[in-house]
Amino acid sequence: MKYDLNYYEKMLREYSKTGERIAKIRWDWIKECDPRTVLDYGSGVGWFRAWRPKGVEVYSYDIAEYPQTGIDLMMYNVVCFWDVLEHIPDFSKIEPILSLARNVAISIPMKVELNNFATWKHWKPGEHLHYFTEETLNALFERYGFRQVKIGQPECPPREGIVSVIYEKINS
Question: Which of 22, 72, 80, 115 is most buried by a 10 A CB count?
Fold first, then answer.
């Protein structure tokens, strides 16, 4: 998958209504994290920032050329990885970002039954570099000093097989 301007323009044309709906679900999901300052890491076309609540500062970063604010603060109430972790080759690259977070919110494809991967909607070798269970995801975040405080599937529907999780920094 090539994440270039053509990809992002297509996403805007074809999925903006769904993007708005998902952004609102995500804002509701993280409300208990006191999301006054938020970093949307892997922000894509910027739907999460576009539909933010009043009074919330959202900074955005993505590897693509799409407009973004950058990473400007030394601490964020929430760092979001919406549909991002499964694409990151080396998690040590996000360690500096995690050090800026009081809370981390993620959405990720997660297969409950560990069988029939070849027919699973989110089985995308080459695009999805990692597949997680709740245990392996928790182990990853524990390594960086976080603990799980909330897990569920608030985006299902409109999506399928996507799990959302909130982590908080231990001793923050």
Answer: 80
